[in-house]
Structure formats: structure tokens, C-alpha cells
């Protein structure tokens, strides 16, 4: 078997560690320094795609749909979101780490079919949270895959995204009928209950890392139903 070749490294802000991109034949891997190890591998992306398939299922015929994808990773969630929405849509992809976006413009782009070349994509380099504050009624779907689940594992500042404050802000940023979809390595009852208390209608779907096989991951599907109120208690 051929050896892994290192293609690049990137520092995660606030001493979050170092990301390394490696390639072996057609396989790509992104790993985090320290015990966490591999974060993404181009051989396993079904659950990343399902995040968009499930989170954008209501947008097939929704003209000018606006979708936020956080983060970019290997581009599978972004590419599946583009497949799920009409040609008039806008899909804003956020990633904290500029190098991750550069890698997707370079060698990594082929994995998901070069989604950054799609004219419907707007890139935000920075925290996805910046797109979700004071944006009332702006988005038809918000798709989050920035951590291992509803805890800021790779970046402690991400805890805000899953907090009562962050979840309320995301709720407000959605249009009526809009959907927040969150990827997680495992179910989390506390987070599901928090989503419900904020006013979302919640389903937790189990998805496999490869079609029909491999590890089971969870996707929280939280719908902003019309006429419900935010309850912060
Ligand atoms: C697990 S990967 C996403 C994988 C992606 N769903 C795919 O299809 O390949 C997580 C990504 O989120 C980015 N990230 C982490 N925290 C973020 C934040 N607060 N805002 C934006 N991007 C973030 C990381 O740099 C990384 O690229």
C-alpha cells in the first residue's frame, strides 16, 4: 500500500490544535493533533450527505432558498445541499479555517465534485455563529457539522451554537417552516430537549457512515413550526 503524503497543515484558532491534510492514492484524511486523531476521511461521507438530504428535503421547489452550511470539511454536506435546492438558491458555507477552504479549491475539491465552483455558493471564512446572530427570518435551512456533536469538541467556542442562547438565535434566524439540522456522532437527549423547549419540532434520525453499513451517527432535525413561541426556561 502506498504511504500517506502530507499535503498541508492549519492551526485551529485559540490553541485548538493543528489540522493535517493527507492523501494516499485517491483517499484523503484530515486529522486533528492529539488524541482525537482522524476527523474526516473521504471513504466515509454518507452521514455528512444525509445532513443535507434531510435538512433540505423541504426546499426542492423553494425558489431563492437560503441555506447555511457550517463547516466546509471535505465538502460533502455542501455538495449534497446544492443537489437538494433549486438553481435560484444561495448556499452560504462557513469555515473557521481558511486553509480548509483552500484545500477544497485544490486537491480535496475532487472528493465532493468541486462544490465551491458552483455559482450559488457564498464562502464565509470565520465562525458560522457570526451568520446566525441578529439574522431574523433569513434562512430556510441551517446545517451544522462543526463538531463531534452538540458540544464544542474541536473548538470550545462552538458551545455557544448548542446553548440556549445560540439555539434561540438560530431559531430566530430561520424562516417559518425552516429547519436546523445538526450532525452528531451519537444521540443526545439533553440537546434534543433543549431544541424542543426553544420551540422546535424535533426528530432524531439515525444514519450510517456508509450506505447501509458502518458506524451509526445521529442527525437532529429541528423544524421551526409556524406559530410556536420561544421558551427559554
Ligand atoms: C467535521 S468537518 C465538516 C465535514 C463536512 N460536513 C463534510 O461534508 O465534509 C468540521 C468542519 O467545521 C469547521 N469548523 C469548526 N468549527 C467551526 C465554526 N465555529 N464555524 C465554522 N466552521 C467551523 C472545521 O474547520 C471543519 O472544516
UniProtKB/TrEMBL annotation:
The entry's keywords: Polyamine biosynthesis
Species for this entry: Microbulbifer pacificus
GO BP: polyamine biosynthetic process
Protein name: Spermidine synthase
Keyword Transcription regulation: no
Amino acid at each position: 500500500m502506498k504511504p500517506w503524503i502530507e499535503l498541508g497543515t492549519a492551526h485551529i484558532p485559540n490553541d485548538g490544535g493543528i489540522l493535517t491534510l493527507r492523501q494516499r492514492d485517491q483517499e484523503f484524511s484530515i486529522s486533528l493533533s492529539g488524541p482525537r486523531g482522524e476527523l474526516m476521511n473521504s471513504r466515509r461521507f454518507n452521514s455528512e450527505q444525509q445532513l443535507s438530504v434531510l435538512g433540505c428535503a423541504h426546499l426542492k421547489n423553494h425558489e431563492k432558498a437560503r441555506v447555511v452550511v457550517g463547516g466546509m470539511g471535505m465538502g460533502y454536506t455542501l455538495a449534497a445541499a446544492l443537489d437538494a435546492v433549486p438553481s435560484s438558491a444561495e448556499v452560504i458555507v462557513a469555515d473557521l479555517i481558511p486553509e480548509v477552504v483552500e484545500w477544497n479549491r485544490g486537491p480535496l475539491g475532487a472528493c465532493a465534485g468541486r462544490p465551491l465552483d458552483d455559482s450559488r455558493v457564498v464562502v464565509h471564512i470565520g465562525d458560522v455563529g457570526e451568520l446566525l446572530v441578529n439574522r431574523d427570518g433569513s434562512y430556510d435551512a441551517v446545517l451544522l457539522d462543526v463538531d463531534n456533536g452538540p458540544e464544542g469538541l474541536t473548538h470550545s467556542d462552538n458551545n455557544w451554537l448548542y446553548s440556549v442562547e445560540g439555539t434561540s438565535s438560530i431559531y430566530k434566524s430561520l424562516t417559518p417552516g425552516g429547519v436546523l439540522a445538526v450532525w452528531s456522532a451519537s444521540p443526545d437527549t439533553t440537546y434534543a430537549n433543549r431544541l424542543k423547549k426553544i420551540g422546535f419540532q424535533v426528530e432524531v434520525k439515525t444514519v450510517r457512515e456508509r450506505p447501509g453499513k458502518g458506524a451509526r451517527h445521529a442527525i437532529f432535525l429541528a423544524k421551526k413550526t409556524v406559530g410556536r413561541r420561544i421558551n427559554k426556561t
